[in-house]
Amino acid sequence: MGLAGGAAAALAGCATPGTTSVNTQPVVPAAAAGEKITLTYWAWLKDLQKVADIWNAKNPNVQVEVSWIPGGNDGGYQKMYSALAAGGGPDLGQVEMRSIPEFMLVNGLVDLRRYGIDEHADRFDETLWSQVGFADGVYGIPQDSGPVGMYYRPDLYEQAGVPVPTTWTQWAEVAPAIRELGVFIDAFALDDASIFGGHAMQAGATWLRSTDDGWVIDMADEITLDVARFFDKAIDDDLVTTSANPFSPGWYAAAADDKIASLVQASWGDALLESVSGAEGKWRVAPAPRWEHGYGSSFIGGSTAAVLANSKHPKEAMEFAVWMTTSPEGVDAMIEHSGIGWSPARDYIGAAREEPSEFFGGQRYNTEVFQPATQQQNPDWQWWPITQQTFNILGDGFRGKATGGTLVDAVVAAEQRTIEVFRQKGLTIRKADR
Question: Residues 102-116: pLDDT tens digits?
Answer without folding.
Answer: 999 899 999 999 999
